[in-house]
Amino acid sequence: xxxxxxxxxxxxxxxxxxxxxxxxxxxxxxxxxxxxxxxxxxxxxxxxxxxxxxxxxxxxxxxxxxxxxxxxxxxxxxxxxxxxxxxxxxxxxxxxxxxxx
Length: 101
Hints:
Distance between the termini: 12 Å
Number of strands: 4
Strand content: 15-25%
Radius of gyration: 14 Å
Helix content: 25-40%
């Protein structure tokens, strides 16, 4: 994927997510919480980092898997409906987005 195509894919994915109601205003900030949208060499990766307000006692075993699963399902549906090839990265749980060819 050329750098220009990667930038366009990133911008288009952010736009599709924003149209669906996701807050992508701060999604690109490293180290932030909430939705994260990152450009990779051949795709765009969308993930989620929980805010500390979701676990005020800071438990060691908190994984938020129910929230992650619901978010993954929503991301897969929204991005597939927008015409992208989407898959879940099994290692991280993030959604990888590519252009359909």
